[in-house]
Automatic annotation (TrEMBL):
Residues 9-132 form the DDE-1 domain. Residues 221-321 are annotated as: Disordered. GO terms for cellular component: nucleus. This is DDE-1 domain-containing protein. InterPro entries: CenT-Element_Derived, DDE_SF_endonuclease_dom. It comes from Elysia crispata. Residues 256-268, 277-300 have a biased composition (Low complexity).
Length: 321
């Protein structure tokens, strides 16, 4: 949708015990007022689109992720979706140096195995709508567009409402538990999948229907019956006479005043046979007229001979003419 509003991206990277924050603004330059009054330890960057690109992701990986995981022993495993679009040679090199192993989730599976999608972003978006609505009501006389200067204050309030007094986010902890990542329990995911062996047909159908989103059903309905859910009507077609070896386009046919088309013959037209009787030798035939009889869509049993009866085979013909 066309809009003049600028966009702001947030990178939430959470563990089973907390989360980090990284903010990207849509701008050419970064201004000081865009970094004041925000959540503690948050970092800020900018891009032309307001989305994360390879440069922003590399900066986040080096200054946020590695900064907070260097003291940890063993392998560090960041799990996320769409990470492959952010990788570059520098990120891979840093990951090898610090024993970091990326895991990219499969497409259309984040609602099952992404902890933040399962239990974190839902309450966050709901709370953000309440905060943004309250801000609009208190600033009714001002512009309703949220400026970058006021954005961080609302973002800080959002994080404070989602965290406990100890700074721990219970929704994030619940997300790791519900996906079976920590504590590790693969049955958490397997129990969400439909199983024909342990469920009745009705229970299996209900679970499958819940797993398939309305968007998928809408796409399948459109593919099956068109935009209105009805099969498209068949149009009458005509055969176009095109010179062998030449091509034709829709523009060529539209520009032609009288397009050369040949209607497809019907079954009734195919059954009609036209026969021409041979001229009598005594008739006054023109010099240019051939005495050989002409027939269409029939076969001759014998060659015509002068002064003898001709025998023709045809569907509606007599044996002799």
């Amino acid at each position: 949708m066309d809009s003049s509003k600028s966009s702001t991206s947030l990178m939430y990277c959470g563990s089973a015990s907390g989360h980090l924050l990284y903010v990207v603004y849509k701008a050419e330059h970064l201004w000081s007022t865009w970094t004041e009054g925000g959540p503690p330890h948050a970092r800020y960057n900018r891009s032309k689109s307001g989305w994360f690109d390879q440069f922003c992701f590399e900066d986040w990986f080096q200054n946020c992720f590695l900064h907070h995981t260097r003291h940890l022993s063993g392998s560090k495993v960041p799990i996320g979706d769409n990470l492959s679009s952010h990788f570059n040679a520098s990120v891979i090199r840093l990951a090898q140096q610090h024993d970091v192993k990326f895991i990219c989730l499969p497409s259309n599976a984040t609602h099952l195995i992404q902890p933040l999608d399962v239990a974190f972003f839902g309450p966050l978006k709901s709370q953000w709508r309440n905060i943004l609505g309250a801000w609009k009501r208190s600033n009714a006389s001002m512009s309703q567009a949220l400026s970058k200067d006021a954005f961080l204050g609302l973002l800080k309030r959002l994080n404070q409402q989602l965290q406990t007094e100890s700074g721990k986010n219970e929704n994030l902890v619940s997300g790791f538990r519900a996906t079976g990542l920590y504590p590790y329990n693969p049955n958490k995911i397997l129990n969400k999948l439909p199983s024909a062996d342990n469920e009745t047909e009705e229970e299996n159908g209900q679970r499958t229907a819940a797993a398939v989103s309305d968007a998928v059903i809408s796409i399948l309905s459109t593919m099956r019956g068109g935009k209105n859910g009805e099969p498209p009507a068949k149009k009458r077609r005509t055969r176009i006479n095109v010179t062998p070896g030449k091509s034709v386009s829709l523009e060529d046919l539209s520009a032609s005043p009288s397009p050369s088309v040949t209607p497809t013959p019907t079954s009734v037209q195919r059954q009609k046979k036209q026969f021409v009787r041979p001229r009598s030798p005594a008739s006054n035939a023109s010099p240019s007229t051939s005495s050989t009889p002409c027939c269409r869509s029939i076969s001759t049993a014998s060659k015509p001979q002068s002064g003898k009866l001709q025998k023709w085979e045809g569907k509606d013909d007599k044996n002799q003419s």
